[in-house]
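Q: what does this look like with zinc ion bound?
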Amino acid sequence: MNDIASENKIVLTSLQDLKENSLPLRYYPDPILNEMCEDVEEINDEIRTLVKRMYLTMIKSNGIGIAAPQVGRLLNIFITDTDFGRYGIKKSNPLIFINPTIINTSEETALREEGCLSFPGVYSNVRRNTEIQIQALNYEGNHFTLDFFDFEAACHLHEYSHLQGKTIREYLGVPERSRVLNNIKKIQRENKRNNK
Ligand SMILES: [Zn+2]
């Protein structure tokens, strides 16, 4: 685990970085969130820059995961950082998954509450497998395989679903969906004000 983490070298250099290099988030009901993603053909500087900007966007929005469609790119890439969620920015420990595949899942499932950066301010119960094994390429283009359990399994399955164009939308009732739309309007108004 440590080897992979140290190969996944993205560091937050400054707060200025966070402000200037984060990307605008795509919110529900943006149709890009329902599209299938394609594999990354070559992990080059353009891809590494995108990964870094996805990471900054996730941190800025206080998320523990982000997938490429959420910043408008239909590529099989997602990042998770459950240590950031638990312990804050100083313990941030992002894992980068490029062209991931779920190679094993448990039969056992559990219901857990999930949020999503593209659905600000609402949570929904989602049933997911409690154990999974993922294979992917890291930031340096090397293959790795990792196992995740319980909450971490759910978090990784959530991000993986984004790459198949699946979001938590189907688990939300009508009141939650309209609450999301109101929250997004609020965020967009604030962004406009901050950019003036
Ligand atoms: Zn999400």
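The chain has a mean pLDDT of 91. The chain has one domain: 2-195.
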